[in-house]
Amino acid sequence: MGEHRDDGQTRAGRHAFPGDRSMTAPAQVDVCIIGAGLAGLRAAGRLSEGGRSICVLEARDRVGGRTMGGELCGEPVDLGGQWVGPTQHRVLALCAELGLELYPQYAEGLRLLDIGGRLRRYRGTVPRMSLLAALDAGRAVRGLNRAAATIDPAAPWLAAGAADLDRMTLDQWLRRTLFTRDGRRVLDIMTRAIFTCEAHEISLLAALTTIAGAGSLEVQAEVQGDGAQKLKIRGGAFQLAARLADRLPPGALVLQAPVHAVEPSETGVTVRHAGGEIRAGRVIVALAPALAARIDFGAALPPLRQQLHSRMPMGSVIKALVAYERPFWRARGWSGEVVSDRGPFGPVMDATPPGSPHGFLVGFFDGGHSRALSGAPMDLRRAAAVKALQRYFGPEAATPIGYVDKDWIAEPWSLGGYAGFTAPGTLTTCGPALRLPCGRIHWSGTETATRWIGYLDGALEAGERAAAEVMASPA
Amino acid sequence: MGEHRDDGQTRAGRHAFPGDRSMTAPAQVDVCIIGAGLAGLRAAGRLSEGGRSICVLEARDRVGGRTMGGELCGEPVDLGGQWVGPTQHRVLALCAELGLELYPQYAEGLRLLDIGGRLRRYRGTVPRMSLLAALDAGRAVRGLNRAAATIDPAAPWLAAGAADLDRMTLDQWLRRTLFTRDGRRVLDIMTRAIFTCEAHEISLLAALTTIAGAGSLEVQAEVQGDGAQKLKIRGGAFQLAARLADRLPPGALVLQAPVHAVEPSETGVTVRHAGGEIRAGRVIVALAPALAARIDFGAALPPLRQQLHSRMPMGSVIKALVAYERPFWRARGWSGEVVSDRGPFGPVMDATPPGSPHGFLVGFFDGGHSRALSGAPMDLRRAAAVKALQRYFGPEAATPIGYVDKDWIAEPWSLGGYAGFTAPGTLTTCGPALRLPCGRIHWSGTETATRWIGYLDGALEAGERAAAEVMASPA
C-alpha cells in the first residue's frame, strides 16, 4: 500500500535512502523505535551511539515525518517543517554538527497586512492598523504572554488555576479580552498560523503551554528578532532526517513498515508490523498521539494514556509553494510577507532558494481554511493560492511558472500538522500521561517536548529525552 | 492477546457463543461487518436476511460491544448499556421479536438529592431544592430543549446558527445561563450522567444534537414518564446481542479478530485482521469513530472522515453494581435513586433483579469522576462506591455482599462509553462525514444514529441504516 500513500515529491527523500534499507528487519533488538521523524531518528542515533542495538520502523516510504522534501522548478523545497529560530538551540547545534548551513528568511522591505478588507503595507513588526485595533491586539498578545509566563510547559497541569485555564477555549478568552474587530482578526490569524486550528478548538491552557515553550507569542509569529521563522536550512530542512538516517547502522531502518500492535511482556516487547515482527527490550513510540491511536497496545496502557490518543487531534494545514519567473515583489521593495484575514491562503512569505533566478513564495491554508481544500485536486488549491496572491501582489502574480503543495491533512501517516493539540479538559486530565513511560514503552514526538512544542526543535528534544530515558532504564 | 483484554465477567457472553464460531473465516463475502456490537449485528442480520453473504469480525472474545453481561451473587447483570425508554421503538420492537420481556425500573418511593452538601428526599420529578435553584435549573433545561428543537439531529451542521453553537462548549452556555450554584450543580450532574463528560469538554451543538435525538433532556434523564431509564430487559440487555448473533449463519461471526487494515480496490475491499484476511464487496465499520482510528485505511478516506476518527473521543464511565442481603431502602420507602454532586459515585438506582431475595444498586463513576478511578484496582472503586452509599442510605449500606464493575475507559476495544462526543468545531466541520459512505466503506455504530444517539436504540437504527445502504448499492 505504501506506494500510493505519499502524493508529494519524495525524490529528494528517496535519493537519500537506498532501497536495501527497507529489506531486512532484525528479529531482536534492544530498542525498537516507531516512527522515523526527527524525534525517532534522533532517539535512534543517540541509542546507537550509546551501544544499544536498534530498529526504526517507519510506515512511510521515506523518513522525516512532518519534514519532507519536494521539488519546484528544479529546486529542492521543504513541503513540511522548515524554519529555525535563534533560540532553538538543539536544531542549531544539529545543523552545525551535520554541516548544514543556515541563511536568513528574506524579510527586507514592506510587509503587507490585509485585514477587514483593507490592504496596508508596513515596515517593522507593528502593522499599520487603526491605533485602537493595534493597541487591542497588542494587549491581547501581552495578556497571553503574561499568562504563559506563569506556566511550566513541562507540567502545565500544575500551574496555578490550570483547571480553569483548561476549561475554556482560546476563543473564550479572546472574546472577553478583545474589543475591536481588527484586533480579533489579527489574533485569529496568529492562532491559525501558530496552532493550525481555530481558536474555539484549542484549550486556553494548551495554547499557553505552547507559547510558554517558545518564549512568547511574538517569537512564535515573527521572522525578525528571535522569531521562529528567522532562519532556513540551505538545501532544505528535510536533509536533517536524511542525514540522521544515514548515520544509523546498516539495516536499522525499515521503511513501509506500519506497526499495528505492540505487546509487552515481562521480558520485552513484541512489535508487529506490516512486514513481520520484532522483539525488543524497550519501545519508543515517536509518533503524534493521534497516530499512536493506530496501534493496538492491548491492555498495556493506563486508561489516561489510552484516552490521550483519541483526545489530541492534529492541526489542519496545507503548505504550498508558488514559483514565478522572477521575485518581482523584491524589486518593488516588498518582502513578500503577507498576513491576511480573508482566507483561504496565508500567511505568505518569500521562499526563493538562494542563487535561484526565479522567485518563490510559500504560504499556508491553515485551520478551518484548509479543510474545504484538503483532499481536493491540487489545481483547485493552486487556483485559490494564485487568486489570493494576485490580490496581494497585483497582476504579476497571475502567471506562476510552478506550484507544489503538501496536503498534510490527507496524509494518512500524519493526519494533519503541525502538531497535535488538545481541546478543553484534556491537558489537565490526560496531560500527565504525555511523557510518562508505560513499563517498557516510552513516548516521544514533538508533542512531548517542553520547549518548542510542535517544532523541529521540540522533536529533537523529545528524541533526546526518550533516548536518555531508555539508557537510564534497566534492559 | 484476547484472553487478558476483557477483565469483566464474560461467562454469560461466552456461554452464548460456542468456540467453534471463532475458528473459521470465509475468504470472500459480499459484506464484511467490523464490530459485533448491536449496530454491527443488526446490520449483519438484515444483510443476511436480504441474501447477502456476510462476515462479522469482532476484536473481543464476545459480542455485544458496549452491552455486556456480568454476574453478581449468581444473578446475570448488565455491565454495559441496559435501559430502554418507551419511545425507543426499535429496541422495543427487537425485544418483542426476540421474545425478551421488559419490566419497569424500580422507582417507587422517595428519591434522594445530595446537592451542595445537603441531603434531601423527594417524590416525583421535581427535586426539593431552594425555589430559586429549582427555577434556575428548570430554565436551563427548558433553554436546552428549546435550542435542541431547532436542530435536525440528522444534520445539526445545517441548523440555524450551527457554527456559533459549535464554537462554544456546553459549559460556556451553562455559565451564562445559570445564576445559582445549586442550579449549576444539577446541570453538571445531568451532563456527566447523560454525556459522560464534563460540560467544558463537549460542544454545545453536540449536546443539543443528542438532546434532539432523544426528544428532550428530561426524557434522557428520567426514569418516569417517557424517560430513557424507564424499562429494563429481564435477564439482561446483553441478551440482545447474543440472540442476534445466534441468528447469523454458521461461521459468519469471527471473534478475537481485531482488524488492522482496510484496503479498497476497484472491485472490492480487503480486510486484514489478526487471523488473516477477508475479501468483501463492501465493508460496514460498526465502531465508534475513536475505534475506527485503530484501522489503517491507507489513503482511502477523505480527509474530513479521517479527521473525525481523532476528533470524537469516547465519554468516560465506569458502571458498578453493589449487592446487599436485602433491598433495605425499599422497606424504608426509598426508591434507591440518588442524584449527587459530591462525586465520585452517582447517579445510583435500584438494580434488584426480579425475584431475587437480595437487593442490588447500580451506579456510575462518570465524566471527570471516573478518570481517577479508571485503571485502579477494583477494591478501590468498591470502597468509594460503598462509602458514597453509606452517606446516601446510612449504615446498612456499609455491608454489601457483592460488588462488580466494568471500567469501560480501560477496555481497549471500547476506550470509554457510553459514546463518542465532539469538542467545539468538530461537528460543523467533520460531522457531515459521520454517515457518508466512502466508496465501498459504510459507517455504522450508535454515533451515526439520528434518534437516540449513543443509546441501544441508536445502535439498532445505525445498523439498519447501514444495511439498507449496502442493499441499495451496486455489488
TrEMBL record, chains A, B:
<dbReference type="InterPro" id="IPR002937">
    <property type="entry name" value="Amino_oxidase"/>
</dbReference>
<dbReference type="GO" id="GO:0016491">
    <property type="term" value="F:oxidoreductase activity"/>
</dbReference>
<feature type="binding site">
    <location>
        <position position="259"/>
    </location>
    <ligand>
        <name>FAD</name>
    </ligand>
</feature>
<keyword id="KW-0560">Oxidoreductase</keyword>
<dbReference type="InterPro" id="IPR050703">
    <property type="entry name" value="Flavin_MAO"/>
</dbReference>
<protein>
    <submittedName>
        <fullName>Oxidoreductase</fullName>
    </submittedName>
</protein>
<dbReference type="InterPro" id="IPR036188">
    <property type="entry name" value="FAD/NAD-bd_sf"/>
</dbReference>
<feature type="binding site">
    <location>
        <begin position="58"/>
        <end position="59"/>
    </location>
    <ligand>
        <name>FAD</name>
    </ligand>
</feature>
<feature type="domain" description="Amine oxidase">
    <location>
        <begin position="38"/>
        <end position="471"/>
    </location>
</feature>
<dbReference type="InterPro" id="IPR001613">
    <property type="entry name" value="Flavin_amine_oxidase"/>
</dbReference>
<dbReference type="Pfam" id="PF01593">
    <property type="entry name" value="Amino_oxidase"/>
</dbReference>
<feature type="binding site">
    <location>
        <position position="364"/>
    </location>
    <ligand>
        <name>substrate</name>
    </ligand>
</feature>
<comment type="similarity">
    <text>Belongs to the flavin monoamine oxidase family.</text>
</comment>
<feature type="region of interest" description="Disordered">
    <location>
        <begin position="1"/>
        <end position="21"/>
    </location>
</feature>
<feature type="binding site">
    <location>
        <position position="447"/>
    </location>
    <ligand>
        <name>FAD</name>
    </ligand>
</feature>
